[in-house]
Specification:
With 284 residues, this protein is mostly helical. Helix content is 65%, strand content 0%. It is built from 13 helices and no strands. This is Iron-containing redox enzyme family protein.
């Protein structure tokens, strides 16, 4: 018999199952995630929170200490037309940034929601639409005479570069534990202050004034990394953190983020500047 209690339990469960799905898409997604998982060693279920923190700190250290040829190319070698190719590869993320995070909020313990909410408030400009990260991205596109409608980029960007956004759909909507998402986000917020300076360098070198999308991330994501650890700590204190799954989220995020970045740089490198008119179609 359905009553108000049953209705509440049904609604609460549906927070983790937002839509009725086409099984073929879910199977494609499952196979993709499993292939990515197969690329790193199996993680022991007994991994502790202390070990998780040691692991992610070591990973960030390894990824940021060594000189990166692709980052150097963005900083010092990319010309303006190549930079246009490069930044449009991240258009789907730039237009939808953090929107999917809403779905994971009800899945977190109440004490873990507040630090994530503070991150989201920053992403959306702290109540000022002119300062939202998507607006800052659109400002950059406008300065470069690129369209500010996301649909324009659907057939322009590489298939690979959809992986980054699709990962966060899986993390927030389909992963069986929000620990995956929190681990992935902690990695991302921790690595961006080391990665995005090359974007800022390129903007300065190419006399692009709308660099705030990148310089803002360099500044704010240091604080967002701290907020992620507050989420993790709150989950650990409430026995809702699965450290092994959080570490798996870190590795998924690292592999896919780095793959997408390298693919975007390679596409920009392979672009041959036209002596006359620049057209995006030439990059396909």
């Amino acid at each position: 018999m359905i009553d108000q209690k049953a209705l509440y339990l049904y609604n609460h469960k549906k927070n983790q199952q937002i839509w009725t799905h086409d099984d073929s898409f879910l199977m494609y997604e499952k196979n993709w995630i499993e292939r990515t998982r197969d690329s790193f060693p199996k993680i022991e279920d007994s991994l502790s929170y202390s070990q998780f923190k040691d692991n992610i700190n070591q990973l960030i250290k390894e990824e940021t200490e060594n000189e990166n040829e692709s980052s150097n190319f963005v900083s010092y070698g990319m010309n303006l037309e190549q930079f246009k190719i490069f930044i449009q590869e991240f258009a789907v993320d730039g237009f939808t940034e953090a929107q999917v995070f809403y779905y994971v909020m009800p899945r977190l313990h109440l004490s873990a929601q507040l630090p994530l909410l503070r991150i989201m408030i920053d992403e959306f400009g702290s109540g000022n639409p002119k300062r939202s990260h998507t607006t800052l991205y659109c400002n950059l596109l406008e300065e470069l005479d690129l369209p500010t409608q996301v649909q324009y980029y659907y057939d322009k960007i590489s298939i690979t570069n959809y992986e980054f956004v699709n990962l966060y759909y899986w993390l927030t909507l389909r992963a069986d534990d929000p620990s995956y998402f929190v681990g992935a986000l902690t990695y991302l917020e921790s690595i961006i202050p080391y990665v995005f300076p090359c974007y800022v360098d390129a903007c300065k070198r190419l006399n692009i004034t709308s660099h705030q999308y990148y310089s803002e991330h360099c500044h704010i994501d240091t604080f967002h990394s701290q907020e992620c650890y507050r989420v993790l700590n709150a989950m650990q204190e409430t026995n809702t953190l699965n450290a092994a799954k959080a570490w798996e989220g870190v590795l998924l995020s690292s592999i896919i983020t780095n793959h997408v970045f390298e693919e975007a740089v390679a596409k920009a490198k392979n672009y041959i500047s036209s002596p006359t008119t620049f057209t995006l179609e030439e990059t396909l």
